Amino acid sequence: MPLPLQAALWMTLSALCASIMNFAVREMSLGGLSGASTAFLRMAFGSLVFLPLLLKPGREPLRFAHPWRHVLRGLLVGVSTVWGFEALTRMPLATATALFFLAPIFVTAFAALLRLEKVGLWRWGASAAGFLGALIILRPGSGEGISLGAFYAVGSSALFAAALLVGRPLSREDGALSVMISSNLVGALAGLPWALNDWGTPASLWLWIVLGAALLAGSMRSFADIKAYDLGEAGFLAPFSFLRLIFVAVGAYFLFHETPDAQTWLGATLIVSASVATALREARKKRPVSRTGLPS
Questions:
Q1: pLDDT, tens digit, for every residue of 42-75?
Q2: How far is 46 from 51, CA to CA, in rounded Å?
Q3: Crossing angle for the helix pair 243-256 and 3-30, nearest 10 degrees?
Q4: I need a labelling partner for 172 at 20 to 30 A (CA). Which of 95, 164, 271, 288 fits?
């Protein structure tokens, strides 16, 4: 099988697993489990998943050349994941998912503002289109105000973008495995206060099954992301990652009777188009690819 096709299939699997995790988070919230407690369990379980890799014979030792950067990235990932899961429990799934795709747009804005890289007119235009899409979805002048769920979704995307910028040099210097392990461990600790403040446990066998599905899907998504980016370029894979929005919209319609309105679809289209354009521009410049995935 050609490598590009393998990469596309792995990225499609990643989008499907992310969608399953989102459905599970919503289902558990309907059963009384908070998004924060589910996010903590997700990150704690993610730490355990990597243990077999640490015990593999002949594996190169983990490197933590800049430990405080690992801590900072873990804190950003932890809060981002908690906020992302909280958003999934408080607003329509397709709307939250569309706002999560603001992360690449925030990366561009932060990189330019912090002077980490030069951003040209093409990427600024894509960023402006993405933020316009967010405004169309959020409708700040409608009189309803921005909901807490929307705040969590946008905030999660911004924090994850910051984590990506911190993680770029770490992945090159210390390796992806070191970054992913430190992010899960520190992230779980960062999310623990939120989880303890609103802790809950599954009250039925069904919810335990759903929780198990969420944890497995989340870990499988991380693995699929790594495989996809090992085999393909970011610019090629970007459109496949946005299949997640389609999967979520269809699943939310049948499982939770949610139907996105025209404004949500318009805003989502702008955000997705801007994110794809940004990924294509990054691929042309042949920058290193972050293999860390999306928060939720």
A1: 998 888 877 776 767 766 677 887 889 999 999 9
A2: 9
A3: 30
A4: 271
Q: Determine contact, residues 150/157, Cβ cutoff 8 Å.
A: no
Separation of alpha carbons 272 and 264, rounded Å: 12
Query: What pLDDT is recorded for position 40?
Result: 93
What single-letter amino acid sits at 9?
L
| pLDDT single digits (tens) 119-143 | 777 778 888 898 899 999 987 655 5
Rg of the chain taking only CA atoms, in angstroms: 18
Q: Which two tokens stand for residue 67?
A: 């430990």
**Domain locations in the chain as residue ranges:** 3-285
3-state secondary structure of 23: helix
46/54 Cα distance (integer angstroms): 13
CB atoms within 10 A of CB 128: 14
Structure token pair of residue 219? 């870990």
Over residues 229-235, mean pLDDT: 76
* Residue 181 CB partners (closer than 8 Å, separation 6+): 47, 50, 54, 62
- Classify residue 218 by its DSSP letter: H
Residues 6+ apart with CB under 8 A from 37: 195, 198, 199, 200
CB 13 within 8 A of CB 218: no
Judge if pTM exceeds 0.90: no
What does DSSP assign to residue 140?
T
Q: How is residue 63 annotated by DSSP?
A: -
Could you give the CA distance from residue 39 to residue 145 in angstroms, rounded to a whole number? 26
Return the structure tokens found at 220: 């499988």
Q: Are 186 and 71 in contact (CB under 8 A)?
A: yes
Query: Could you give the residue ranges of the DSSP H alpha helices within 63-140?
Result: 67-90, 93-100, 103-113, 121-138
Is there a contact between 170 and 73 (Cβ–Cβ < 8 Å)?
A: yes
